[in-house]
Amino acid sequence: MIRTILTLCVLALTSPALAAPLTPAQVFARQTTAVAPHIWLIAKPAVTDPPFEGNVVVIEQAKGLVVVDAGGAPVSGQAVVAEIRKLSKKPVTWLVYTHYHGDHNLGAGAIRAVWPGVQIVSSTRTWENMTGLPMAYVASYAKSYGDLAAFAAAQAKDVKLPDPLREGWRRTAEAGPAMVEAYSGLEPYPADLTFESRITLPDETAPVEIAYLGRANTDGDVVAWAPKQRVLATGDIVVAPIPYAAHTFPGDWVEVLRKLKAYDFRVLIPGHGPPQTDRAYLDRLIAALESVRAQVAPLARADLPLEEVRKRVDLEPIRKQFAGDDPWLRYVLAVVFTGDLISNAYKEARGETVVQGKG
Ligand SMILES: [Zn+2]
Q1: What band does 2 get if pLDDT is binned at 50, 70 and 90?
Q2: How confident is the model at residue 177 (pLDDT cuts 50, 70, 90)?
Q3: Which tens digit of pLDDT belongs to each residue from 318-327?
Q4: pLDDT of residue 8
Q5: Mean pLDDT of 107-122
Q6: Residue 281: enclosing H or E segment and its boundaries?
Q7: Which class does domain 18-359 fall in?
């Protein structure tokens, strides 16, 4: 008994204190930055902590606003609406989805509630994903976040973990109840208008060209290009500082990244994370994808089991480049990027299909 109490005292002294849980409004709060004349980025500030909420881009046209992505929950959409109202009195006329992942579109109801005339537009493939099995995960989304929050609370108390890792878990645990609440009872809003390859939203000062460039982060990603301002919003084809690779198509993804490099952009706005003003991050991402593909392909074709392939791939240069020595960023990188990238490159090398939302 005394030993237990002593252990608890040691834990209490060495564990970071778990503060009171944050509210959904705090966790899903957004900040707006001006990117170019008539264009703003509305982002969740802490990009490498859950919830991983997609960037929202607002482009002001003469008759209304074009909004690219909508936030990932009703409360997130409400935060986006509040920021939009500070920018302009014009209505949102177009809402463009970059892809089907819920962190970019489950806030759409809040936008539609305020501007019922909004037309939602996506690629045909994204519409199919949002009305089919790939989107089914939203039914268990709140439960997954409940499990994550419980795991995070336990990890935050684990004194064997390095401090920055425990700090990351502590922040995740603090946001846990808010994430569960925000991700409960979600309703997807599939697009009203779909297109196969390209659509233009004309305007004198801020026309927007939306284009499907091939499979990349999903099988239906589109980018939004404002040619007069030379601003390119990429969705999760580019995510910084830690890329995502859930159900990606590594070879096609590289080709799409090369197409992004060919845009004469002044600012590239990723799906999550800070705007980029040069091509350095695109090059880093292409190099990481090429490195993993080159390492995985011969092993996969030699019929080594996936788990064996994982052990043999040297990820250290990629870890250094994207996460430095930060244990939390290294953990996030493994969970959202390298683990999935290896399995997707493995499937690609073996001619197997990467199924959206599965495996
Ligand atoms: Zn995303």
Answers
A1: very low
A2: very high
A3: 999 999 999 9
A4: 42
A5: 98
A6: helix 280-301
A7: alpha beta
Tell how far the Cα of 227 is from the centroid of ligand 1, in angstroms: 24
Q: Residue 107, SS3?
A: coil
Long-range contacts of 11-20 (CB under 8 A, 24+ apart): 11/157, 11/159, 14/159, 15/156, 15/157, 15/159, 15/166, 16/156, 16/163, 16/166, 16/167, 16/170, 18/153, 18/156, 18/157, 18/170, 18/173, 18/174, 19/174, 20/174
- Amino acid letter, residue 204: E
Give residue 286 CA to ligand 1 midpoint distance, Å: 19
Residue 14, pLDDT score? 43
Close Cβ partners of 17 (under 8 Å, ≥ 6 residues apart): none
Neighbours of 239 (CB within 10 A): 24
Give the burial class of 8: count Cβ atoms within 10 A of its Cβ; 0-12 exposed, 13-18 middle, 19 or more buried: exposed
179: buried, middle or exposed (CB in 10 Å: 19+, 13-18, 0-12)?
Answer: buried
Residues 44-80: tens digit of each pLDDT:
999 999 999 999 999 999 999 999 999 999 999 999 9
Average pLDDT over residues 131-137: 94
- How far apart, in whole angstroms, are the C-alpha atoms of residue 164 and residue 152? 13
Identify the pLDDT of residue 30: 98
Query: If you measure from the C-alpha of residue 53 to the centroid of ligand 1, how many angstroms do you get, rounded to a whole number?
Result: 6
Q: With beta carbons less than 8 A apart as the criterion, state whether 67 and 115 touch.
A: no
**Axis crossing angle, helix 74-87 with helix 163-182, rounded to the nearest 10:** 90
Rounded to the nearest angstrom, the distance between the alpha carbon of 272 and the centre of ligand 1 is 6
Pull the structure tokens for residue 201. 């939203």
**In sequence order, which ranges of 115-182 are alpha helices (DSSP H)?**
124-130, 141-156, 163-182
Which helix (H) or strand (E) covers residue 81, if one does? helix 74-87
**Nearest residue to 272 (alpha-carbon basis) of 246, 244, 292:** 244
Q: 117 vs 65, 91, 93, 95, 125, CA distance in Å? A: 12, 9, 7, 11, 23
Q: Is the pLDDT reported for residue 16 higher than 80?
A: no
**CA 238 / ligand 1 centre spacing (Å):** 9
| Distance, CA of 58 to CA of 40 (rounded, Å) | 5
